[in-house]
Amino acid sequence: KAGVTQTPRYLIKTRGQQVTLSCSPISGHRSVSWYQQTPGQGLQFLFEYFSETQRNKGNFPGRFSGRQFSNSRSEMNVSTLELGDSALYLCASSFLGADTQYFGPGTRLTVL
Amino acid sequence: QQQVKQSPQSLIVQKGGISIINCAYENTAFDYFPWYQQFPGKGPALLIAIRPDVSEKKEGRFTISFNKSAKQFSLHIMDSQPGDSATYFCAAPNSGNTPLVFGKGTRLSVIA
Asked: Residues B37, B47: contact at Cβ < 8 Å?
């Protein structure tokens, strides 16, 4: 069974630009969560989607948004990029309500 | 929001030694405590998990010890190997808005 895939793996953007990251969950998983990982803050929850609906949202500004498609694939968008948005963005998928989350390799975003 | 406090931040262990990483949580309603392992360039992967109905769970060289009264759980890596060098995260399910809340991670280096 293929794992969680994320594209692109690396991105370099400049301040003020926007970016879209993509995540394809494990086949059969309909719950997709996004996390931001930084050296200082660790793994911080961004949002969770299930059946194209956002179920939960973390404490991030409105510049961070996401969506999920009918095939469970998910995208997250960050608008008006700031230097502090430089991070590894991780996507995780699971069955709804399952304890175990399966992570993708992440997208490394660098904002210059 | 639930906090999970992890220590130490970094750990250096001799090959063959025992690595011990500790986590403390707040919410006694939690019923699932996983440890994730992350290698550079990869997303976190579930290593081992425990439910509070047992005080210890062992899988190979990896053991979780759980102390419900102290609200603490720890990861022990016996006979540590250089291949165990990675970042380890403890986590707990959040009764609020996030699927999992993670500790800030422990960077383990096993030296020969």
From this structure: yes
